[in-house]
Design a protein that fits this description.
There is one protein chain. The protein is α/β, with parallel strands linked by helices. 35% of the residues lie in helices and 23% in strands. The longest helix is centred in the N-terminal third of the chain and has 17 residues. It has eight helices and 15 strands.
């Protein structure tokens, strides 16, 4: 008789000393590295916990002889990849990349995402758009019916950020998001500064009605560098499960059990 997935998940998490969610993240990262990464590829290396599981598995393959070059989407990913022996290059020297692999804060059934919880959204979007394909790595808890429960990060220049905040708030009100909290991100009492030296404003929308239209409108505001809505970018998703398995899906996603 086959052991139920929940029982297998509990056993796996206990044996590895990881939470079920961390086991799922590891499973997604490992499968992505094993399934998609081939000799000679130019790879975008994502940021965040699931992406870093991918980077660790990629490093194992590199030690076994895989020849790839990576472009990191954050200083944290850069430091991890260097430590693990993955060859890195400047995006300006590589041109178009073969593949970017990165994780979301939320992903809907059509592959639209909110990203930027790790304060890396600008580099992440540049690398994703510079790649022929983007594969998302995630645990199944990141899949949502509608984006917006996770606060939408909006990266802004420090110069005149209060003016940008006011204009963003006016846009949100005019497009059906009244009284949305819009906070400059801080951690332990200090303002969060991105790798590019900018601030992040987190918009608590609750539900995003039209991700594409909102993403375009936000980027018209002076001082807005980029926003965390990734629309029409992802090609496939690798979803990890707490039993250490992972599935590959295209879009739209099927209903998950």
């Amino acid at each position: 008789m086959t052991e139920p997935r929940t029982a297998r998940a509990a056993h796996r998490a206990s044996a590895d000393g990881l939470s079920g969610q961390d086991v799922a993240k590891r499973a997604a990262g490992r499968r992505a590295a094993r399934e998609y990464c081939k000799d000679g590829m130019k790879l975008g290396l994502g940021s965040g916990t699931t992406s870093h599981w991918f980077v660790r598995e990629l490093a194992e393959q590199v030690r076994d002889g895989l020849d790839v070059v990576g472009v990191p989407t954050s200083t944290a990913t850069r430091d991890l990849a260097r430590e693990l022996g993955i060859r890195l290059a400047d995006l300006n020297d590589l041109g178009e990349l073969d593949l970017a692999i990165d994780g979301p804060d939320e992903i809907d059934h059509h592959g639209n995402m909110i990203k930027g919880g790790g304060a890396c959204l600008w580099w992440e979007k540049i690398v994703a758009r510079a790649s022929r394909r983007m594969v998302v790595v995630a645990d199944e808890s990141k899949v949502v019916d509608r984006l917006g429960a996770f606060p939408l990060p909006i990266e802004v220049l420090p110069f005149g950020w209060v003016s940008s905040q006011r204009l963003i708030r006016e846009l949100l009100v005019s497009t059906g998001y009244p009284e949305v909290p819009l906070e400059r991100r801080a951690r332990n009492g200090d303002v969060v500064v991105t790798d590019s030296g900018n601030y992040l404003l987190d918009a608590h929308l609750g539900a995003v009605h039209d991700p594409g239209a909102l993403a375009t409108a936000l980027n018209q505001i002076p001082g807005v560098v980029e926003n965390g809505l990734f629309v029409g970018i992802a090609d496939q998703v690798v979803l990890g499960h707490p039993d250490d398995s992972a599935d590959v899906f295209g879009f739209p996603l099927p209903e998950l059990a």
